[in-house]
Structures are given as C-alpha cells and as structure tokens.
C-alpha cells in the first residue's frame, strides 16, 4: 500500500515562501516513485478541495492551476521518493490544507479520483 506523508506547512506572511514535501513509501513490487503522477491539492475552510499542481510520470510534464502559475513550482527527487511544491509570493487566498496524491494515470490531473492520498499539511498565509 503506497503511503504519502506531507510536510513543510506552517504560517507565513503574505509575500513569503514555503516548500512542501510529499514523501512516498510502501511501493508495490517494482513500482517506483516516477511511475506515478503526483498531484498537490488544497482545501480552504468552507471550500471544495482543488487541484494546485501535478507532475507527470518520468517528469515529462507539469501542470498548474491558473491561480498559482508563476508562483509555485513542482519538482521530484526520485532518489528520495519525494515530490516538492515550492511556493513563492504567497497570498492569503493560498491558505488551506495541502494534500499530495498519487495515481498511475489521473485524468484530468486535477480530478480528485487519485488512488492514494496523504493526510495533509496546513498552510496559513496572514499578516
């Protein structure tokens, strides 16, 4: 059973930066980290969970929600079985619980039907 653990959340002032990490373990058979699409999602209080970013298998493509393009960068370190979300120029509307998720082939990338989910890490942007 693939397990995902997020870390790196916290409180930051508007304009600040954070780097979230998503560490994977429990791969089945010969599966590896780069066999999976890894998505980042967030859920603000009282709102639905939404897709933030995704990195495709073998790092072929990356995807971003319009609201974070140019500010967030997703990357993968397969040797560490970890995917990162570097968040710059944070805004109060970026506040929420951030989740990472894994799937062999999500379609589309922002669909919530990923097979595996982490427990989330809280990001709070306020002055």
Description:
- With 127 residues, the protein is mainly beta.
- It contains no helices and 11 strands.
- The strands form 2 sheets. Strands 2, 4, 5, 6, 9, 10 and 11 form a 7-stranded mixed β-sheet that branches.
- The protein is globular.
- The model has no long low-confidence stretch (mean pLDDT 93).
Task: Provide a compact summary of the structure.
The chain is mainly β and 127 residues long.
SSE string: EEEEEEEEEEE
Shape descriptor: globular
Question: Spans with pLDDT under 50 lasting ≥5 residues?
Answer: none
Proportion of β residues?
over 45%
Helix content: under 10%
Helix vs. strand class = mainly beta
Count of discrete alpha- or pi-helical segments spanning 4 or more residues = 0
Q: What composes the largest sheet? A: 7 strands, mixed
Mean of residue pLDDT values: 93
SSE layout and pairings?
Blueprint: E1 3-7, E2 10-12, E3 18-25, E4 37-43, E5 50-55, E6 62-64, E7 72-77, E8 82-87, E9 96-103, E10 116-117, E11 121-125
Features:
127 residues, mainly beta, four-stranded antiparallel β-sheet, 11 strands, 46% strand
């Amino acid at each position: 059973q693939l397990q995902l653990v997020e870390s790196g959340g916290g409180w930051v002032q508007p304009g600040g930066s954070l780097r979230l990490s998503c560490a994977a373990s429990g791969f089945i058979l010969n599966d590896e980290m780069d066999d999976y699409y890894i998505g980042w999602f967030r859920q603000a209080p009282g709102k639905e969970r939404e897709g933030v970013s995704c990195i495709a298998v073998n790092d072929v493509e990356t995807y971003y929600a319009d609201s974070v393009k140019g500010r967030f960068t997703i990357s993968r370190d397969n040797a560490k079985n970890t995917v990162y979300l570097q968040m710059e120029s944070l805004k109060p509307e970026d506040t929420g619980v951030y989740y990472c998720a894994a799937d062999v082939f999500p379609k589309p990338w922002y669909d919530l039907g990923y097979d595996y989910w982490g427990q989330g890490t809280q990001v709070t942007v306020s002055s």
